[in-house]
Write a structure and sequence with these properties.
With 147 residues, the protein is α+β, with helices and mostly antiparallel strands. 52% of the residues lie in helices and 13% in strands. It has four helices and six strands; from the N terminus they run αβαββαβββα. The strands form two sheets. The protein has a four-stranded antiparallel β-sheet with strand order 2-3-6-5. β2 and β3 form a beta hairpin.
């Protein structure tokens, strides 16, 4: 279900569903900083963790069209959101305890995957990002429908 194809009522229903999931993340924040520079960028451990993070993220976002992986040289993962949604996505992630670096209106970077982050934490961080990106996109689309 591509978000851009939803009706106003469907957007509101999806927004309410995502807000309920997001509330759980805010109640128990993860506290994972993925915005710092990665001194191990390119090392096999970091690349393996980045692939795992990307796999979980792709699974979470594949049906919505709100964000997709993109290339960046100074990050372990770069994500392209719907135009104008990157800063709101990063803000929502930060409120849920995961820090990403929003570099422009549509690009978010995960510059580091902390060495002590396990698979479960990375899957949780990817879910936080996915839900945050969905909420930011839904807010943006709802705002366009009101205008």
């Amino acid at each position: 279900m591509q978000y851009t194809d939803l009706t106003k009522k469907e957007l509101q229903r999806e927004y309410n569903r995502m807000a309920r999931r997001y509330t759980g993340f805010v109640r128990e924040p993860l506290q994972l900083d993925m915005a710092e520079e990665d001194p191990l960028l390119g090392k096999s451990e970091s690349l393996r963790a980045a692939r795992h993070f990307g796999t979980v993220l792709n699974k979470e976002l594949s049906d919505s069209g709100v964000a997709r992986p993109t290339d960046a040289q100074d990050a372990v993962a770069a994500l392209s959101t719907m135009p104008g949604c990157a800063h709101r996505t990063a803000e929502l992630c930060r409120q849920a305890g995961v820090r990403f670096d929003a570099v422009d209106h549509s690009t978010i970077l995960a510059r580091i995957i902390p060495v002590d982050a396990g698979s479960e934490q990375l899957a949780h961080a990817a879910s936080v990002f996915a839900i945050s990106a969905r909420i930011a996109a839904l807010e943006s689309l709802q705002g366009m429908l009101r205008a």
